[in-house]
Structure formats: C-alpha cells, structure tokens
Amino acid sequence: MTRALVLGGGGPVGVGWESGLLVGLADAGVALGEAELVSGTSAGSIVGAALRLGWDLEDSIRLVERPPAVPIPATGMELMFDELTAAAAGNAAPAELMAALGRVATDAPTMDEEQYLETFSALHGQAWPAGYQCTAVDVDSGALAVWDAGAGVALERAVASSCAVPGVFPPVTAAGRRWMDGGMKTALNADLAAGCDVAVAVSCFSLELPPGLSDPVADMLAASVAAELDAVRSSGTHLATIEPSAEFLELSGWGLELMNFSLARRAFDAGRRQAAGEVDRLAPLWAGEG
Q1: pLDDT-derived band of residue 54, with 50, 70 and 90 as boundaries?
Q2: Which residues lie closer than 8 Å to 50 by C-beta, 6 or more apart?
Q3: CB 3.0-4.6 Å disulfide test: which of 44, 111, 137, 219 passes with 40?
Q4: Long-range contacts of 258-261 (CB under 8 A, 24+ apart)
Q5: d(CA 113, CA 47)
Q6: pLDDT tens digits, residue range 161-210?
Q7: CA atoms of 109 and 121, how far apart (whole Å)
Q8: In a 10 Å sphere around its CB, with 0-12 CB exposed, 13-18 middle and 19+ buried, how is residue 92 labelled?
Q9: CA distance 7 to 183
Q10: What is the number of other CB atoms lying within 10 angstroms of the CB of residue 90?
C-alpha cells in the first residue's frame, strides 16, 4: 500500500497548526509522517521537510514564531489579493492569473533574495529527505515545479521558493529560473497524490464557504482545489481531507491572519487539540482498512 500526505499552504500560522495536528495524530497512533510520499506547498513545504528530516515538530515552530529580520512590505498581500480579485471578476484564465502574480512577485519592493534565504538557514546543507517533495511556480511561465531529491535543487532553496508569496517575499532562483510560492496554482496541489492507494490532504482553508455565503475569490480558489480533489479520487486513491476546526478558523481570522507570526504557537496548540477529533476517522484509512 502506498500512502501520501499532502500539506497545504497557510503562512506561519498554518505551519503551527499543521505541526500540532501531526503531533497530536502521531501521539494517538496515526503517524501520517510514515507516508511513502509527503508533498508540501508553502507552509506545508516547511512542515513536510521538518517531518521527513525527523525534527521535533513542536520545537521547529521556532522557525516561524518571529518575522524575518527585514520588514515585510505592508502592502504585499494586498497586491496579491488585488490580482486574485481581478481574476475572479474577469473570469481570467489560469495562465493570465499566473502571469499577473508573476509580475507582482518580480516587481514588488521586497527584501532581497539572500536576505530571504537566511530565513531558511536551518535547512542549509541538509540532505534531501527521502519521499519528500515540494512545489513552486515559475514567475515567467507559470509552470509548476515539483522539487524532489532528483531535481538537483538544494533543499533550502526548494522550500524557500515554495514559500515565496508574491508581493511579500522575493522570487527564489533555482535551476536557472525564478520561482514563487507553489500555492499560486492552488493552496494544496493535492493532485500530486493521484495514483497512491491512500492519501490525506491537510488544508489550512475551508474547502467551501458556509451555506449562504459567497465570495468571488474564495469561490474561485475553492473550485480549483475541488477539481484537484476530484482528480485524486478519480485515480482510485482513497482520499481523506482535514479542514480547519472552528478554533483555528477563528484564530486565523478565516485566513486573513495566516501571516501573523505571533500566532504560530497558539495555532500549534489548536492543531493538537483538533487531532483528537480526527483519529477515529483517519485511523482505519491509514491502516488500509478504510
């Protein structure tokens, strides 16, 4: 049986929540870290790397508890969301949206690349973990890269590229190209688990809005993720998803506070508490009994 763990994007707060969730599940006997494939996007790339490197996930929260030494542009997230809003309003094609986000990534007045890479210095010199991959998007072509041990890219740069939010952090140079956050395709990239026997996908965002609520950007993003999840199921994979608890949604401001570094530790605790309510559902699937 081949099992995949997909860890989605969600800023430093998402790093905390995903880490707490994995620790709580492992403590209850559901060791998602034993998956044959761990695929991470953005925040999930950090958690996935730490998991496969055998780090103590609670201790690794220190990597995201404090913001980078160089201030993040105050308008960075606004630039990205302006493009998402325009794309939703104009029903833009995915290629058009990727091109617009690429321009934000390259033109925004962020810290320089070497300063940004210092944020990931704990990964410097680390060998690529077995069974681990992470994603990034080419700022010029919009193509998705899936970095793994065979890609010839240092782990530090691969993870940094996966986390390079347009307008907030600079693009990262790797394999002769410049790359931005892998979550610009979708926050999950769940389709990378297609073909595995079993997969668990962890999303830092609700997969759909509550009944009666609608937001063009949220609806557009949710539709993209839903299509990916359908593709995984259609491949024959037995798929389970984990969405944020009410506690985490409130803490993260329904996604608006995911870049608040000071909330990472509280998010870890929220994830650990949520794990207790996920065990009965996930244990049979992970054991191959679901």
Answers
A1: very high
A2: 19, 57, 60, 63
A3: 44
A4: 258/10, 258/11, 258/12, 258/13, 258/14, 258/43, 258/204, 259/11, 259/12, 259/13, 259/72, 259/77, 259/165, 259/168, 260/11, 260/12, 260/13, 261/12, 261/64, 261/65, 261/66, 261/67
A5: 22
A6: 999 999 999 999 999 999 999 999 999 999 999 999 999 999 999 998 77
A7: 22
A8: middle
A9: 11
A10: 10
Q: Which tokens in the block code for residue 182?
A: 């892998």
Token code pair at residue 76:
């960075």
290 band by pLDDT with thresholds 50, 70 and 90:
low
- 207-261 tens-digit pLDDT: 987 777 778 888 899 999 999 999 999 999 999 999 999 999 999 999 989 999 9
Cβ proximity of 187 and 152 under 8 Å = no
- Total number of residues shown for the chain: 290
Tokens of 183: 């979550």
Q: Which of 203, 192, 202 is nearest to 232 (CA)?
A: 192
Are 2 and 253 spatial neighbours (Cβ–Cβ below 8 Å)? Answer: no
pLDDT, mean of residues 148-172: 97
d(CA 65, CA 282): 29
